[in-house]
Amino acid sequence: MIQKPRGTFDIMPEETPLWQYIEATARNTAALYGYKEIRTPTFEATELFQRGVGDTTDVVQKEMYTFTDRENRSFTLRPEGTASVARALIENGRCSDTLPLKLYYMINCFRYEKPQAGRSREFYQFGVEMYGAADAAADADTIGVANSIIRNLGITDVSLHINSIGCPNCRPAYRLELYNYFKAHEDELCDTCKSRLETNPLRILDCKSPICSKIGEGAPKSIDHLCPECADHMDKLKNHLDEMGIEYEIDTNIVRGLDYYTRTVFEFICTAIGAQSTVCGGGRYDGLMKELGGPQMPGIGFAMGITRLILAMKACGSVPDTCNFPSLYIAPMGKAAQCKASGIVSKLRSKGVYAEYDLVGRSLKAQMKYADKTGAFFTLIIGDSEIESGKAILKNMKESSQQEIDLNDINALMKAIGYEV
Prior knowledge:
This protein is an alpha+beta fold and about 425 residues long. It contains 15 helices and 16 strands. The chain has two domains: about 15-170 and about 225-315, 2-Layer Sandwich (BirA Bifunctional Protein, domain 2); about 330-415, 3-Layer(aba) Sandwich (Rossmann fold). The chain has an eight-stranded mixed β-sheet with strand order 1-5-6-11-10-9-7-8. A hairpin with a 4-residue loop joins strand 15 (about 390-395) and strand 16. Helix 1 (about 15-30) runs antiparallel to helix 5 (about 135-150).
């Protein structure tokens, strides 16, 4: 038997209603903030992620699915969405549009990493990107989108963590302090962090090794080494969040895993779902557009993993009853009755009613068991006598009540099963 690749999963029909509910909630909430959807290719030129995400990141060095096509060009399945959106805006000449540019996406991404709860090799994200707004108000507004989506999904056991990692003006001095600190502990670092020490010591703070994490606790904090402009930006962000009633805590351990981040970084954390507790992560990336060949344009955004949102909703008990049950199931007895049922169901469906009837020739007893299994609210049994009289008994499966209806009056049938005509 051929099996799905490791680290991927099938989303079965009984699961998709919850996915659709989350996607609809995210889309509708983003729309209230003025965001419009963008769709980008599943694979891009490998250089896009090398330049945009960063050569020294784990994503580029260890996790990308890269292949060479028949013309010997290197392409990569997207490991994230931000770089693709920036590329699309540049390539399609949209950077001169009215600012700010507000975009959202619903995508699947690919990273080669160890599969575990809340982490897979193909995963699904909802994300937003805002370009052209440098003020801290844009940071707060973006965080507001994420906060609203999370709250609208009923996830209550969650907290917002924020930090600032500075800008190109103040980060070099901070980077030197980090280097000197970790250099003194070089022998204790894991092999990966030993290489990071020379290329990007900030990434050591993101290491999940218990030893490196312990060493990192005593490292200099970026928020203590901000230039006046970055410090002022952080203060303004906190003021906006306070005014918006969004609670937060300063978390100096947040650095995010991608090189394009500057100044504000943030995460929404749900401790109820275990080790993979970050349900949303984002921040500011003011230099990304220029790095990819576009104009100097500030940007900020976030991405949230759908599977982690599901885990959080289950942990918080906020999963809604999203199953789609038939309003009516018609149980025909015989070929003539089946033909009559097909006509009734067709008319009901044309009016937006979810209706079913037997297609496989079950016995009446088996049909009633099937109707109960589908969760149908009403059932209608049709045989030769019902066809001849034009009347049949409509049974309410939830209340065990019944009434006679006219088979030729579709509007009356719709009213009987709870629809307005």
